[in-house]
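note to self — DONT lose this again. spent like an hour looking for the file last time. sequence + predicted structure for the chain T wanted, 140 res
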Amino acid sequence: MEKTIINERTGWEYELIGEQYYPTGRVMKDGRLKPETVDTDNEPEDEKSVGEWAQRHLQYIKQHKKNLYFDLFVSGRLNGYLAEIEAQAEDMFFRLVKEMAAREGVTEALKAEDQMRWVGLMNNIQNRAREIVNRELIFV
């Protein structure tokens, strides 16, 4: 068996380690690919912020949707995908909070009159909105 081979389709070089070939310089000790060494034909995407919502979704797809995660990771689209999830989640969360507060009469006037009641109601609304976003967008 040859010590190194090159995959003609992908152009990746593989090195024989034991009885199995591994991508040269692309594999960590636990067998996962190093993110900075993945080659793609795509142009590098812009760095976008990945916040709390996207991090939750990333953990979910790593555990429950491994094929989706691997496809996005290898193609170099993972950060863009997560940035889109983050933007959608933020928009959905703030829209839900605004709608629920209006429907339940939680206004600035209430905030001026009884701050503790307003804080309690807003915390309740935010928790419900967070649960809806998690159920509808993050953990799917």
